[in-house]
Amino acid sequence: MPKTASLQPSTSGIALHLDSLAGLLREWLPRQRWFAGKDRPVTDLRLLSMTELFPGCLHVLIHAAHAGSPPPHAGVPAPGGTAAPAGGDCYQLLLGFQEHLSPRLGKALIGRAESGPMAGLTVYDALLDPRSAHLLLERMRHSGTLGPLLFDSDPSVPIPSGLAPRLLDAEQSNTSLVYGDAFILKLFRRIQPGINPDLEVPLALAREGCARVPAPVAWMRTSRPQEATLGVLQPFLPNASDGWTLALQALSRGEDFTAEASALGAATAEVHLALAAAFPAGGHAENARLADAMTERLDAAAHQVRALRPHVPGLRAAFGALGACDPGPPAQRIHGDLHLGQVLRAGREWFVIDFEGEPSRPLAERRSTHSPVRDIAGMLRSFDYAARQRRPWRPEWARRCREAYCAGYAARAGWDPRKKHALLRAYETDRAVYEVLYEAKHRPAWLPVPMAAIERLAVRGD
Question: What is the pTM assigned to this prediction?
Answer without folding.
Answer: 0.89
